[in-house]
Amino acid sequence: MTINKGWEKDVVDRLQKREQRAWKELYEAYSSEFTYVSLRYIRFREDVGDVLQNSFVKMFNAIDSFQYRGAGSLRAWASKIVINESLRYLRLSKKEEFELIDEDFPEIADEPEPVVNDIPNEVILNLIGCLPVGYRVVFNLFVFEKRSHREIAEELGIAESSSASQFHRAKKLLAREIGKFRQSQEVAYER
């Protein structure tokens, strides 16, 4: 599906008229991106389908209140719904314990900031997915959603300092895991 300059405004008008074809177009245009967004929060790929289905139901129910504010506003609005549904899923899921790791968690040694340009996105996504859920959520909200620690704290019901601490620990763990990945690649290359 090709998205041209006026497509988003047109599809919003059609979505608000409950045109079924417009919902199909929205799904075709953004489902891959929304899958990726949800996978940053949810570790198990098989659960992402449920989250996306719930997200599209929420979009359908809320489209009448959506106000088009220019190019990208539909994508941003829908992405926020996917993120919120992903967080909701984590809170309700029994597969992963959604809690923020307490302040007395053992300190992680500082790792140098890794270069990731040559690491495939899928590998990075998997490494992020292996972070403890609290670290992963804060990391994603801060890095990908550009939320401040104050906003994250309000959304998750934690102290701002806890958000910052979780983020820095997530970065350290991720740097360590990237280092391990690089070492495994070097060993494989030497064989």
From TrEMBL:
Coiled-coil intervals, chain numbering: none
Protein name: RNA polymerase sigma-70 factor (ECF subfamily)
Keyword set includes Translocase: no
Single Gene Ontology MF annotation: sigma factor activity
Keyword check for Transcription: yes
Keywords: Sigma factor, Transcription, Transcription regulation
Cited NCBIfam families: sigma70-ECF
PANTHER family associated with the record: RNA POLYMERASE ECF-TYPE SIGMA FACTO (PTHR43133), RNA POLYMERASE SIGMA-70 FACTOR ECF SUBFAMILY (PTHR43133:SF46)
GO BP, sorted A to Z: DNA-templated transcription initiation
